[in-house]
Design a protein that fits this description.
The chain is an all-alpha fold. The protein is 65% helix and 0% strand. Helix 6 packs parallel to helix 8 and helix 8 runs antiparallel to helix 9. It is elongated and about 65 Å long.
């Protein structure tokens, strides 16, 4: 996803993997919820809670939302004060289209720990998806104020994306530029900063950032090439547009961006 169109969800592709802070490890696929005892001894509860949280996160990452919800509900039955479980449940319910219950889950998490930066981040992203941009910005700001928060750059990235969705281009540029200072090699940050600069008419600066993304082969995507094409076209460089268009067609012939290029739909 890119920031180039306000007609479709923006930024999801670059932030989805970062929403599950603390749940990044994927458990062995052979482990299932059936392997966990139904009535564990009290001493075993923390271990089983952790196992089920890992399972819930893994199922959610695979798009198996109903099963993920079962696992996270089992966690809350075992320990009703698991802040991370409420936060994860909020993400799952949001993905299932149940916005009221998702918001309630985030609120329950923050009721138990108002300074949980991961929940503030996730709640902010949820609010952004609901187009409640001012509320989202507030949650991101609160997350960034938490002392010792280890994922501040991730939050700056999604905050910048959300500000761009709201067409607050100057704020988005400042936020993404700040994130870039911390992680200049992060392609998601570089791409979205280039996109915002392009939208602001800062084509030379946008070229600098998108070239840094595309010079690393494994970072090249249809979206990054398409942005580079539009930037070069705006700068009056038809030969570079043609070169990048050929690369887009050769590497990603079935992509929507390749189709747009072939049809000359540069402003879509």
């Amino acid at each position: 996803m890119t920031l180039s169109s306000l007609k479709r969800p923006l930024g999801a592709a670059v932030v989805a993997a970062s929403l599950l802070a603390g749940c990044a490890s994927v458990p062995d696929s052979r482990r299932t919820s059936e392997s966990l005892p139904e009535a564990p001894a009290k001493a075993d509860i923390p271990r089983l809670v952790q196992a089920r949280m890992e399972l819930a996160a893994a199922y959610f990452q695979r798009g198996q939302n109903a099963t993920a919800l079962q696992e996270v509900n089992a966690v809350l039955q075992a320990d009703a004060n698991q802040v991370g479980a409420y936060s994860l449940r909020g993400l799952i319910l949001a993905a299932m289209g149940d916005a009221p219950r998702a918001e309630d889950s985030f609120q329950q998490a923050l009721h138990r720990d108002p300074r949980d930066a991961d929940t503030l981040h996730n709640f902010g992203w949820f609010l952004c998806q609901q187009r409640r941009y001012a509320d989202a910005d507030q949650q991101f700001a609160l997350a960034l104020q938490v002392p010792g928060y280890q994922d501040a750059t991730r939050t700056m990235l999604v905050q910048g994306i959300c500000q761009a969705r709201n067409q607050r281009w100057a704020d988005a540029e400042r936020t993404l530029a700040r994130a870039y200072e911390y992680e200049p090699a992060n392609p998601a940050i570089g791409f979205n900063l280039a996109e915002v600069l392009y939208r602001r008419g800062e084509h030379e600066r946008a070229r600098f950032y998108i070239r840094r993304v595309n010079q690393v082969d494994e970072q090249v995507t249809p979206q990054s090439l398409w942005l580079a094409i539009r930037i070069e076209r705006s700068l009056g460089q038809p030969s570079l547009v043609q070169q990048l268009g050929q690369q887009l067609g050769n590497r990603f012939p079935s992509s929507n961006e390749a189709s747009l290029y072939q049809r000359g739909r540069f402003d879509d």
